[in-house]
Design brief:
This protein has helices spanning about 10-25, 30-60; strands at about 5, 65-70. A two-stranded parallel sheet has the order 1-2. The protein is α+β, with helices and mostly antiparallel strands. It has 2 helices and 2 strands, in the order E-H-H-E. The relative contact order is 0.25. It has a domain at about 10-25 and about 30-65. It starts with a strand and ends in a 10-residue tail after the last strand. Helices cover about 60% and strands about 15% of the residues.
Amino acid sequence: MGIVPLPSHIHYELLLQILERQTLPSLNPMSSEYSQAKQVVVSLRKALAHQKTLEDRCSRSDRQVEHRWSLNEHQPYR
């Protein structure tokens, strides 16, 4: 079976660090913007968890996962 291209985990981590270290501290914790930014953090954490579940499923079905760093990496799919 072919390779399954997925985003590298570092992409999620970078976004989470920016949001948690820079965005959230810049907002008023009582504001709707803060609540929305927190929801983005929750959504990203869920997305990463879902991706890890997909990776596990691929591994169990002998599908190879390839973590991608960008769209510019052109490798033919098998």
